């Protein structure tokens, strides 16, 4: 019975190590502790060794996350955006259009603001869904994987490849200060920044909605 008590923790440890070390090709689980599942561009579950995948479903929270790609189009991992709302309602940020923006593949189709990115992703129907939005800071923090050695991004790279060592916008903002919060996946820290700042974006859909 003594060995049975440690089997669970040992198995979880092996799963985490394998996820943090993609070079271990012989051990590539479909999910970490049953938590993450890859989805193809139509939203269908994929096998553990299949790819590329477009989204990841977190079975523990019910959230579905968009995955960044290395092509030069909409979901390129290096694209940055100015904060302009989460795109799910009219938050009165139209006055920000025309000012400095981020750098993204959709610049010619409308702009590089968070609302532009959400609108175009929903029009695209990524993974078969049209209700993509900015995540809350609480939701973003569920992706942190603190077992990752610094200065690598604190995220499970075998499900969220190409995650950058920098800030990712959340939907959390303070109208009194004119600032929104971004989570840095290198340090795991969240800070408030002016809305005209440029950061990365990882869209989400599912439970919770806007904060």
Ordered list of secondary-structure elements with their pairings:
Layout: H1 2-20, E1 36-39, E2 55-58, E3 64-66, E4 81-82, H2 114-124, H3 137-141, E5 167-174, E6 179-184, E7 190-194, E8 198-199, E9 204-205
Antiparallel strand pairs: 1-2, 2-3, 3-9, 4-8, 5-6, 6-7
Q: Distance between the terminal alpha carbons, to the nearest Å?
A: 46 Å
The strands making up the biggest β-sheet line up spatially as 1-2-3-9
Q: Average pLDDT value? A: 78
What characteristic shape results from the CA principal axes? globular
What's the total helix number?
A: 3
* Pattern of helices and strands: HEEEEHHEEEEE
Query: What is the radius of gyration computed over CA atoms, rounded to a whole number of angstroms?
Result: 18 Å
How would you portray this structure in words?
- With 211 residues, the protein is an alpha+beta fold.
- The protein has a domain at 60-205.
- 17% of the residues lie in helices and 17% in strands.
- It is built from 3 helices and 9 strands, in the order αββββααβββββ.
- It has helices at residues 2-20, 114-124, 137-141; strands at 36-39, 55-58, 64-66, 81-82, 167-174, 179-184, 190-194, 198-199, 204-205.
- The strands form 3 sheets. Strands 1-2-3-9 form a 4-stranded antiparallel beta sheet, with no helix packed on it.
- Strand 2 (55-58) and strand 3 form a beta hairpin.
- It is globular, with a radius of gyration of 18 Å.
């Amino acid at each position: 019975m003594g060995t049975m008590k440690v089997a669970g923790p040992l198995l979880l440890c092996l799963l985490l190590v394998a996820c943090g070390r993609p070079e271990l090709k012989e051990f590539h689980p479909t999910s970490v502790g049953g938590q993450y599942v890859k989805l193809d561009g139509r939203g269908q579950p994929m096998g553990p060794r299949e790819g590329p995948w477009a989204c990841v479903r977190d079975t523990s929270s019910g959230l579905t996350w968009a995955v960044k790609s290395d092509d030069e189009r909409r979901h390129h991992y290096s694209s940055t955006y100015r904060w302009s709302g989460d795109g799910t309602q009219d938050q009165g940020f139209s006055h920000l259009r025309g000012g400095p923006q981020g750098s993204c593949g959709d610049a010619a189709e409308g702009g590089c603001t968070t609302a532009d990115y959400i609108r175009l992703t929903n029009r695209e129907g990524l993974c078969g869904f049209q209700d993509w939005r900015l995540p809350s800071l609480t939701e973003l923090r569920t992706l942190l994987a603190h077992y990752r050695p610094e200065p690598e991004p604190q995220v499970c790279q075998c499900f969220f490849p190409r995650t950058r060592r920098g800030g990712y916008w959340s939907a959390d903002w303070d109208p009194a200060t004119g600032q929104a919060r971004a989570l840095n996946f290198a340090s795991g820290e969240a800070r408030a920044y002016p809305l005209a700042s440029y950061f990365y974006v990882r869209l989400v859909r599912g439970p919770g909605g806007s904060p």
